[in-house]
Amino acid sequence: MKRREIVKVLGLGVAAAGLAACTEEKKTVAADCAQPAASAAPEKPETIEWKMVTTWPKNFPGLGTGANDLADLIDKMSGGRIKVKVYGAKELVGALEIFDAVSRGTAEMGHGAAYYWKGKTRAAQFFAAVPFGLTAQEMNSWLYHGGGMELWEEVYAEFGLIPGAAGNTGVQMGGWFNREINGVEDLKGLKMRMPGLGGEVLKRAGGTPVLLPGGEIFTSLQSGAIDATEWVGPYNDLAFGLYKAAKYYYYPGWHEPGTTLECFINKEAFEKLPADLQVIVRNALRVANQDMLADFTAKNNEALQQLVNEHGVELRQFPDDVLKQIRALSDEVVAEEAAKDPMSQKVFESFVKFREQAIKWHAVSEQSYLNARTL
Ligand code: CA
Questions:
Q1: Same structural domain, 131 and 97
Q2: Rounded-to-integer distance, Cα 259 and Cα 219, Å
Q3: Whether 226 contacts 207, CB under 8 Å
Q4: Quick one: 266 and 340 in the same domain?
Q5: Same-domain check for residues 248 and 320
Q6: How far is the CA of 176 from the centre of ligand 1 (A)?
Q7: For residue 197, how far is its CA from the centre of ligand 1 (angstroms)?
């Protein structure tokens, strides 16, 4: 379904719901519902102006444009009643300052990824990406139908924020290196940009994880401030020109198997919205969440071919042994991180339980089919 059509359907749904409520109400309270046609000059509804701060460079492919699309969708779905102005990193606040900015009400919305906030609340990391965790499809299932969303809301409540999934990258790439990775020992001493739980695993393997916003990666890699980096996937990595500063491009992104991007909303601002606009904002997020994954899936292969064929990038798969060893380290590290506070443990238990059933079901469905397709 095209976005335009989705907007139409949701818009009609909301209108129908409003009508039903009014009809229902008419039985008991006639006054409000009896009059609308008579008081013919409808008041122009007030336009609500919101700001959305993002961790992405303005208009950055997939991520920044995903934030723009979300703002546009909210505008159209609300019939122009909510206008959201999008700010790129550093335009209003720094990339990693958006969480605090929305929490204190400087902006109403923030677009980023939850693992950037592990210094504020460790449990946040589970809502972005977990090494050897859930794929995009599984993340959405856990969030929407497996109790994940309720837990995320609980984690952000103390900051006065309402979280929402607002995009997904799908399986990311393993990253850019100037040395071959033939064993886990090759990660020793490696200073690598890697956020979240993946970074903790890298640390356990003897490397040094560095947290850098996207816009600072290329210069850090080129200047040698970091030895290696991961970012997202071919579509995004090509846009940053990372191939100019590293030779080997490894896969798969064991550390980010289906990263959820987020859009969190200042709770007070959200609760001031009339009920129909709250429904519209929540559903705009759901559309944006799905659409970003479709965008990445459509664009990544073309970018990958360009990297390999035009820019001479050496594409390498992590050896099985390396992946097995990193998986064992990941299991240890993630469980230990979770045990550091009760909220992280609570989220981890829900996540692990969901992953167990996802592994079982996907072994006979997605995994089995993907294998069959390339036999
Ligand atoms: Ca990444």
A1: yes
A2: 24
A3: no
A4: no
A5: yes
A6: 11
A7: 11
Q: Measured in angstroms, how far is the CA atom of residue 256 from the centroid of ligand 1?
A: 6
> Residue 236 Cα, ligand 1 centroid: separation in angstroms?
10
Query: How far away, in angstroms, is 24 Cα from ligand 1 center?
Result: 49
**Claim to verify: residue 137 and residue 280 sit in the same structural domain:** yes
Q: Which residues surround the ion ligand 1 when the cut-off is CB under 5 Å?
A: 172, 230, 256
Cα→Cα distances 372→244, 301, 365, 368, Å: 36, 20, 11, 6
Distance (Å) from CA 247 to ligand 1 centroid: 18
For residue 321, count CB atoms less than 10 angstroms from its CB and return exposed for 0-12, middle for 13-18, buried for 19 or more.
exposed
Distance (angstroms) between ligand 1 centre and the Cα of 174 equals 8
**Taking the model in full, what pTM does it have?**
0.86
**Which domain CATH number covers 128?**
3.40.190.170
Query: Do 83 and 121 reside in the same domain of the chain?
Result: yes
Q: List average pLDDT for each run of 10 residues in the chain, which is 375 residues long.
A: 48 45 43 49 82 96 95 98 98 97 98 96 97 98 98 98 98 97 96 94 96 93 96 96 97 98 98 98 98 96 98 98 97 97 98 98 98 96
Q: Which of 250, 232, 245 is nearest to 300 (CA)?
A: 232
CB 225, CB 192: distance < 8 Å: no
Please state the domain count of the chain.
2
- How many Å lie between the centroid of ligand 1 and the Cα of residue 252? 11
131 domain-assigned: yes
Rounded to a whole number, what is the distance in angstroms from the first to the last CA of the chain?
32
- Going from the Cα of 91 to the center of ligand 1, the distance in angstroms, rounded, reads 23
Is residue 59 in a domain?
yes
What is the whole-number distance in angstroms between the Cα of residue 9 and the centre of ligand 1? 34
Report whether 54 contacts 87 (CB < 8 A): yes
Note whether 290 and 344 are same-domain residues. Answer: no
237 CA to middle of ligand 1, Å? 10
